[in-house]
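Reply to dn_fold:

You asked what the input looked like. This is it:
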Amino acid sequence: MALTQRLEFRQSQSLVMTPQLMQAIKLLQLSNLDLTTFVEEELERNPLLERASDEPAGGEAPAEAAEFNDSDESGGSNADETGTREAFEPGQEEWMSRDLGTRAEIEQTLDTGLDNVFSEEPAEAAARKAQDAAPSVYTEWGGGASGDEDYNLEAFVAAETTLSDHLAEQLAVAFSAPAQRMIGQYLIDLVDEAGYLPADLGQAAERLGASQQDVEEVLAVLQKFDPPGVCARNLSECLAIQLRELDRYDPAMQALVEHLDLLAKRDIAGLRKVCGVDDEDIADMIGEIRRLNPKPGMKFGTSRLQTMVPDVYVRPGPDGGWHVELNSDTLPRVLVNQTYYSELSKKIGKDGDKSYFTDALQNATWLVRALDQRARTILKVATEIVRQQDGFFTHGVAHLRPLNLKAVADAIQMHESTVSRVTANKYMATNRGTFELKYFFTASIASADGGEAHSAEAVRHHIKQLIDSEDPSAILSDDTIVERLRASGIDIARRTVAKYREAMRIPSSVQRRRDKQSALGNVLSTASSDRSRNTEPA
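and this is what came back:
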């Protein structure tokens, strides 16, 4: 067969990831805080972008700004049982229907089971609250020092001391050798907000070029720092440090600290056997453990939690449906300064400058359109979610329907990846609370009678209701819960019930029986002591 060369014309379609397309995809999945930061950076970078004011001073805004502001003001939609009425034309770009990948699911964390062991006494909590609320002499003086408008009280407020700063001050006094200070500062930098170090410090010696013995010697000194229990590597070590500080770390208490798993399970009989003490002593020891602080670093300054701002509001409509609207406070308002560009284009003579401002104009125009398209897409997806989950908004979580990305994507004629990006890091404020958009997407559980499937979230709610209403003398096992769910028309396996129960941090039936019997015994003991005091002769 002879090889020849020839020219052929072929027509094909392919998706090209242009910088503008990648920017639009990035904007779609950003949260409102990240979007604000991104727009602020673009305003500093692009001279043709301006922040649109809420009340423009005379004149009309350019076409790009008017188009974007229209979506903000009229960004509402009504969703009822019969259908959806939208206040805008979709105008969907081609890239919104392409397959651009999916997002990874967030992994669930495990509960340690010791959260309820440590609880602050009511008297201590009241004293702590009163101490925090009491104004200091300095703040009283600062509040009435001057009535001048230029007076700034914040200039006199001391910076909040962090745990790292507090430990660093003690480090400067505890060590004089530079090598030990370097090791100590490295370990302090590893301490988390609760005051704990990582369980494995083997890499610390390797990275610092020191021996493991040197690291252990420095760590032993750090564990004597204030607050007691800081720089521990686990909960047992943290409690042991505090007990040594109180001179209460005897062999019985050591055995108790080393078997905290029994304490978490409230296995008093097992603890009494391990520690070798009687009922009265084990009760006193558990009381001492409760008075310790399992997170000693939390009383110092930590990073402030930012308030979650919803992206979408859902309100009851006058016609019995639901009105869906965007939160205009989370939508950045930017416009393109066409006047400035027109003036510059007349004065610029260099080709390089003209090319720069032409690119700036294109980027600014694309950003405004991308923000507009992002707002419209979020509203469209949220409206369809409200339409699909109308029973949840009307009757509650028990009526939450099974829903997946494909159902919403098919209804609004978008791709699943687009819906996945829209629902990421977005929140909806409803009459039943504020929820992430991904909350409304739940797996389906088959019905026992072959009817409509049940939502996994609704099944979890049903399980919690059964456990909350159970009789202390007849604790429901997982098998009993399965039987009652099947009687209600929910076909579910026992392992699924156990998985949902553990995800809601509900203990097993054995643990619940111990807890409720212990609580009942305390109530009866208190009532008996009250009766004995009332019957004593005066």
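Residues 345 and 353 are 9 Å apart (CA to CA).
Hope that clears it up.
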